[in-house]
Amino acid sequence: MSVIQPSHSVTEHRLALTVTRQLIVRTKLIACCVTFIAILLTGIVSKGAIFFMISSMSNEWTQPSSGERVQDPDPYKHVVRFACWMWSLFFSFAVPELFGFLQSLHICVSRRGCWTRPRFVDFTIVFLFETAQAIGMALLLGSVFTGLSVLHGILITNCLYLVPALFNFLSRKPDEPKRAAKMATDAFAFFAQLSGCLHWTFIRDTTALLSNSYDFSFIQRQRMLDWTLPVSLILISIGWWENHVDKGAPVGFIKFLGRIKENMKETRPFTQIFVSLWKLLVFVGTMLILADVVFMTQEEHAFGATSDLFLLAIKNGFIQFGNSLTSVDWTSPFYVFIIQSTASFFFYCFGTFACKIGVQRSCFALPVVLITPSFICMWAVTQFDLLNLCHDCLSTDAQYFTNENYQRTVILLCLAFVWFLSQIWITLHIWKPAEISEQSETTDTKWYNSFVIDQSMSLSPHCHPSTAIDETGSAAKTVFAVVTMWHESTEEIHNILKSIFRMDKDQCKRRVASDYDQVIDPHLYRYETHIFYDDAFEWDSRDGVHSSRVVNHFVNDFIAMLHSMNCTSLDPPTISPTPYGGCITWILPGKTKMAVHLKDKTKIRTKKRWSQLMYIEYLIRHEMANCIDLSNVFLLSLDGDMDFRAKSVHILVDLMNAQRDVVIACNRSHPTGSAGAIVWYQMFEYAIGFWLLKPSEDLLGSILCAPGCFSLIRANVLLDEEIMTKFNALSEKAHHMIQRDQGEDRWLCTLLIKRGYRLAYSASSYAYTHCPETFEEFYNQRRRWVLSIMANTIDVFLNCRQIVKMNPNISWLYIVFQAVLLTLGLLCPGSIFLSLVNISAITFLLNPWISLASHSVLILIFIVTCFLAPTRVQLMVAKCLSALYGLILGIVGINSAVSISGYASVESYWSIHNVFFLSLVCCIFLMACLHLNEIHCLLAGPIYMLLTPSMSMLLFFYAIINMNVVSWGTRDSNSTERATPPTTETLKKDIENYSNIGNNYNETADGADTVPQISNENGQTFNTTHELSIDTTSYQSWEMEQDAEDSAVPSSSIPADQNPYKTRDSLNWNLKTEVELSKQLSNVKCLSDEDNSYWNNLIAQKLFPVVDSNKEHKVFKLSYNPMHYAQARFCYSIQERISIDLIRLRNLSFTLFISINSLFVALLFGMQVNSDISILQGLNNTNSSSYNDTLEFTKFNDDWVSQTNPMHIVLVVLAGLMIAIQFVALLISRTKNLIRLLSSVELKFFRKNLASADGANGLRLSNKVVLIRFNSAANRNEKNSASNHQTDLGQISTISQL
Fold this sequence. Notes:
Blueprint: H1 8-62, H2 76-110, H3 120-147, H4 150-156, H5 162-170, H6 179-198, H7 200-210, H8 216-238, H9 252-298, H10 307-323, H11 333-356, H12 360-383, H13 388-394, H14 406-426, H15 438-443, H16 453-458, E1 477-485, H17 490-515, E2 525-533, E3 537-539, E4 549-551, H18 553-563, E5 574-578, E6 581-587, E7 593-599, H19 608-623, E8 633-639, H20 646-658, E9 662-672, H21 677-700, E10 710-714, H22 721-728, H23 734-741, H24 744-754, E11 758-770, H25 775-798, H26 800-806, H27 812-843, H28 848-868, H29 871-903, H30 906-909, H31 912-929, H32 941-961, H33 984-992, H34 997-1006, E12 1013-1015, E13 1021-1023, H35 1044-1047, H36 1089-1103, E14 1106-1108, E15 1113-1115, E16 1117-1118, E17 1128-1129, H37 1135-1182, H38 1190-1202, H39 1206-1238, H40 1279-1293
Parallel strand pairs: 1-2, 1-8, 2-7, 9-11
Antiparallel strand pairs: 3-4, 5-6, 6-7, 8-10, 9-10, 12-13, 14-15, 16-17
Helix pairs in contact: 1-2, 1-3, 1-11, 1-12, 2-9, 2-10, 2-11, 3-8, 3-9, 5-6, 6-14, 7-8, 11-12, 12-13, 17-18, 17-40, 19-36, 21-32, 21-39, 23-25, 24-25, 25-32, 27-28, 27-29, 27-32, 27-37, 27-39, 28-29, 28-32, 29-32, 31-39, 37-38
């Protein structure tokens, strides 16, 4: 028996996983301790604040009628104080109900697929149950608790489960294990709760004798307790029916309620909108009626009050409650309300957090059960006078704890112990693990009850264990990495190859662990890489006639880099000439396939959108045509410069498995490049965008764009014919050219959103992309991005009704959010221009009109340059203006620093602009603190600020004025081929010779002995005669006019033997003259007949090449008729029409853009001028000195800018609101990420041998990061298995340094 030891790389990997897991476990342990303490303390504080309010209200209640207070000159003030404390109780009750109302309203408005309208019967029953609970709460607080001591009141809170105990007894199924014992315990719990409702009748007489018999108000309250105590407890318990009914119960009524409970999962948001507001009205109405009855009875004995006087006292009590905000006493009603509401809210948050991270028993159920005993201990402490403060707050009757009352107290404590045991049994479900999914969290809008926070959370649907098991996440997954490349540099090629090898290594390790070590890995997947090289061929100048093609030097650089990356075990590639150009296939060391598809633009359509169509059609509709479930097949869309790790892919896969409605998920992209101002600017820009915009869009509904540089796409969504038909369509209008061809990734996302799909973002996954390093390349890239963003966003607005109707994740609130963002973006150039005018006037002591004229001249010069000058000159002028504006901002920054040092007035510090800027800086700093691994991006903040005028103002003008330029912009300098292409005369000559190619082809086939041949996989032979090719080097992809007869012929109707592309393979690929592939001629294989026919049909229907000349746009397409195989058909181009339409669209867009910003600037500047005139008149009236004095001029300019007008306030408030919304979304997003991370591990304190446990068993399948163990393959029975295992591990070690 041979023992196979894991390789060194596997050992290091296992050690790294162990260290990571230990760090997560320690973090979770700290989180558990904090959560336990927080839940216990917040529960005690919440309950203590409630009883403090009740005690204070009870004291004010008894003051007017007490014997010592009859001589009080103003007994009415006690009624006002009572009303003040009553309002504090009402607002404490209202806070969670308003939260539930707002959440339900948001769901009903924004998430249409998460709710439905309930049946009338269901709504009526739920409405009655909630109304009963609200009345019971008002009776309990307004009558019961005010007539009892604090200790008695705390013990009574264990008797709120009468109806749940009865429902538990009636819900037991006949086949349930240990049914008799459980029903007996249910019966005991029911009678224990019933004793709590009726116990007052047995101890009331003793209490009355021990109390002041002459206190009429006390006697009245004792009589009211006879019916208010049992009624209130029963009514409250009715509201907690939901967790104790089952649709499979043997009793018909319980079964009926169980069906209503199931329906409530979808109907609760709609119901809660009405129930929440109704409960507030019922609660305050019941409290007022109850107080009015009691006061009208007892106040007649005090000072003869009337109903009008009582209503006036209620009004004055509300005013006094508001005035208590200014009090410095923390025991004032307002501050007690704030303390109670905050404690209850944090109790709810920490309780939900404990359930989500999987520590419900130790960190939620245990502290909830300990809250009541903790209060009893506090009562004991006050009895021995150890804490006078607690004694003052918790004791309402100093004579209550006397020796005569000792016996009744002991009896009450014994009863309370029985109530406590029954409560534990009834709420036993909180000790079972509960998994709160995002869907249940979204639709369950019933929050908590502030008065009995521990009981309400124990009976909340949030904490009820879920029995549903999601099996979809464990299905086998397939990931196709699709990379679109063009003219990448060697550094970028190195980055993408490193990432591919990392994926290959990860897949191999997981496969080895699953096949040989029997490790159950939920992240086991099948992986392939497909690289699509655009414009990969050039004319071979060495044959002298330009009749053959060879790969360009970018492909040769890729091949050379691949073989230089220490891959000694890399097998020779398989080379296949294809109808679209060629394909080179490698089998990587980890046994994964990497196919490089080389596109020849004379054979197939180029550019990224058509590469996307190419891999969608080939991988999804051809390769996976027989796959039954495409929901677990994913396309990993990548750019050719990406640097990422396998963990980032697993995170996105987990996200899409957990949220099945997500069809595309993207991650956090980090820009990289050589150190420079442009790269630093992009570092800060990317950070702000991914910190604010992406989380807010994801939280509000769906992100609008998943960047194509790194996104995971669910394959089944690409089978939607309506989406693919529009995505595949050629651009027929000017705005199509901008929307579709300038931003193909965003165009696909727009189509998905319009069809009702959701796009998600995960900040836990990250990747690195190479960003533009020069000013020119950056401007050209953003020219495309700006226009594409605006075009697609406007398209969303134009179809907003359809989107809101079709997409359950998009609401009108989301549309308004995006509309405000777009409006602020369009007004951003005008805002920056006006800011430059203002700061220049202040800093350089200029007249505002002179400053306005100076900056207007600069902008006008740039606009004229963009209209008349070539691109090179435009970028040169933009660069000079950027430097000038950066210099101005630098001087302004120095001047502001000097002003802050003490040379400016205090009023200027707190102007609306300064406050907004300081708030924005603080917000950005807090965001960086939430991303500690990205906090270095703050260092690029000053560069971002200096370049803001250039990137947020000049860039807009450059992009809009150059709207008619549709070139890609980036890497264009490398786009020329090294070989000289044929001339137009050669092209015409080639076309004329096509009429005889058919006959020549037949003759060549007959004389096969003189023609080289290549064999395919089936042993069939094919001719390798070089075909005559059409030059498209100087052409760009534009539009096409298709004849109706051509468009009417589907691809399926073209026989394989009659398809013209069948005989038009890329066999003119001259492999003998290749630089890197000339030694691999022995590995040349042709495609199979099936693949060859597939590509021919696909090209003929959707991907045929489109070419154009300088003045006339022509489309070459071969005839379907085999008799006209070599004839080329031309149709006149619409290039001139599209060019004219683009110019018209450019002029219209620029006119609207400049008009809107000019009006905006004129409006704000006009308001400032009016403020200028008023200030100038004030100075002339108060000071006779000349206005030209420098000091006064500086003072005037400071005042001129510090003046605020309504437009300023609206814009600042609107921008601040948008930032606040995005910041809150970021906090929620980071909290969710923390929950997912902590839920990925399980704390096992009582396991004897933790190391021997299977690592996969210690992790949840729904986690974000799965850590798997790799055991040694010991005791192998078969030598072949051991040999294969060792071979795989050896192949892994060859790329362990990547």
